[in-house]
Specification:
alpha+beta, Beta-Lactamase, 2 domains, 5-stranded antiparallel β-sheet, 9 helices, globular, disordered N terminus
């Protein structure tokens, strides 16, 4: 057994990575919690929410304040600081869609007046690249630029997964529990594969309150020059008005996907003729 490294006082030095990485993990979780709270979180609230000792929570907050990742607001509240905001800007720049795909997204949003998204398929995940929304439109709080989780519950992800090779889908989900995000989330593997087969036939995907209660989505994939799925366009709609607009909204996201596919295959941005 190798000897533990000793400090100048003769006592063993803590093993590298043990407490340091744990502290880093706690700090990142704390930073994310502050960002989600939108400037309302206090040390006591964060301590209770994250299961941290109050002293530990204050220590992490002071560290993030000194580094510029957080700022302290009146009333003992905390919010994201300039360094954390800079990370967000870098993420947006790196994950932003091409100007042409942004034009298609703007067209989709202008026509539907519903929250509209474009996502790209990268390294085995569908990553939300950009979205446009109106004040009276709906957007699940979890969805923001860079989001890539819970692919089995999102219309855009299902639209892409349906057109991947079967072995790719198997590698992604075989032996993996499908998290029940809402009571309507598909969590049975056979039912999920049947859903993907249905999407392949109809060439669009639905999320009927599977990701967020009260919100329905429709998405359509677009394809690169090799015929592989490159991403998807999605609109999210309050469930109360989705059914009466469902057919028309489906046509709009499919138009957007046809435009994007044409762009990737020809390099030209054109509106498809009806």
């Amino acid at each position: 057994m190798p000897e533990r490294e000793q400090g100048t006082d003769g006592k063993p030095v803590a093993e590298p990575g043990r407490t340091t990485l744990r502290t880093l993990e706690r700090g990142l979780v704390l930073l994310e919690a502050v960002a989600t709270a939108d400037g309302t979180a206090t040390a006591k609230v964060l301590s209770r929410m994250l299961g941290l000792k109050l002293g530990t929570c204050y220590h992490l907050l002071r560290t993030l304040l000194e580094s510029g990742h957080l700022v302290r607001l009146p009333g003992g509240r905390y919010d994201v600081g300039p360094r954390a905001a800079s990370l967000g800007r870098h993420l947006r720049r790196r994950s932003a869609p091409s100007p042409e795909l942004s034009v298609i997204l703007t067209r989709l949003h202008t026509k539907t007046r519903e929250t509209s998204y474009v996502s790209g398929w990268y390294h085995g995940s569908l990553i939300l690249q950009h979205y446009l929304s109106d004040p009276d439109a709906v957007r699940p709080a979890a969805l923001d630029v860079g989001y890539s989780e819970l692919m089995h519950a999102r219309a855009g992800s299902k639209a892409v997964l349906a057109f991947l090779p079967r072995d790719h889908v198997t590698a992604l989900f075989d032996g993996v529990d499908l998290t029940p995000v809402t009571p309507r989330t598909i969590v049975d593997h056979d039912a999920f594969l049947a859903e993907l087969a249905k999407i392949r036939r109809q060439r669009y995907a639905l999320d009927l309150e599977e990701f967020s209660p009260g919100v329905c989505c429709v998405a359509a994939p677009f394809f690169d020059e090799t015929g592989h799925p490159a991403g998807a366009f999605t609109v999210s709609v309050p469930a109360s008005r989705f059914e009466r607009r469902r057919e028309w909204l489906t046509a709009q996201v499919r138009e957007a996907s046809v435009m994007a596919t044409g762009l990737l295959r020809t390099g030209r941005l054109t509106v498809p003729t009806v």
